[in-house]
Amino acid sequence: MFKIFFLLFLFVPLVELYVLIEVGSEIGALPTILLTIVTAIIGAALMRHQGVSTMQKAQLNMAQGQLPAVEMMEGVFIFLGGLMLLIPGLITDAIGFLLLIPPVRRLFSKKLIAQRQTQYAQYKGQVYETEWTERSSDGQSIQHVRIIESGAPDKESDVIEGEVLDDDKKPNR
């Protein structure tokens, strides 16, 4: 991990410097400097606006009793996008603006969450259980349970799949 950060710390500024020199030779030094300053200002404004919007969505989800996992991950991407825009350079600015586009950010968030859930389940050998209740035509509640075991598929499982029938017309005691 340290090697990756070291390489990024070494090569990203060199590539950014090369691109800035090339762009500066085409449009001039002053417009290139102004471009990097303007992108930093726009990035800070976008980061603040979208951060507040994402926080409001997360609060709304929590008020409805839902987990704001996507909004939390979007908040991380907003922070990273704003950070990329504050770093001088055109490549980091392009990446920063890409992370501040809501549909792109939401797509990245959902994919990352799904990937991490799968990796964690495979690593831990977790069992996921999903259940829901339906009412049949005769008034009975039918509870469905679906169990997905991830991890080592050759390992024997003590999990039994089934359905629970529950009659709501129980006598009062």
| SSE string | HHHHHEEE
Query: Which structural class is indicated by helix and strand composition?
Result: alpha+beta
Report the strand count.
3
Determine the mean pLDDT: 79
Beta-strand percent range:
5-15%
Specify the biggest β-sheet: 3 strands, antiparallel
Helix content: 55-70%
Instruction: Give the overall shape.
Output: elongated
Give the assembly state of these chains.
single chain
Overview of the molecule:
- By secondary structure, the chain is an alpha+beta fold.
- Helix content is 65%, strand content 13%.
- It is built from 5 helices and 3 strands; from the N terminus they run αααααβββ.
- It has helices at 2-27, 29-63, 69-86, 90-99, 102-124; strands at 127-135, 141-149, 163-166.
- Strand 1 (127-135) and strand 2 (141-149) form a beta hairpin.
- The radius of gyration is 25 Å and the shape is elongated.
List strands and helices in order, with pairings.
Blueprint: H1 2-27, H2 29-63, H3 69-86, H4 90-99, H5 102-124, E1 127-135, E2 141-149, E3 163-166
Antiparallel strand pairs: 1-2, 2-3
Helix pairs in contact: 1-2, 2-3, 2-4, 3-4, 3-5
TL;DR?
The protein has helices at about 1-25, 30-65, 70-85, 90-100, 100-125, and strands spanning about 125-135, 140-150, 165.
Task: Using brief descriptors, characterize the structure shown.
5 helices; elongated; alpha+beta; 3-stranded antiparallel β-sheet; 3 strands
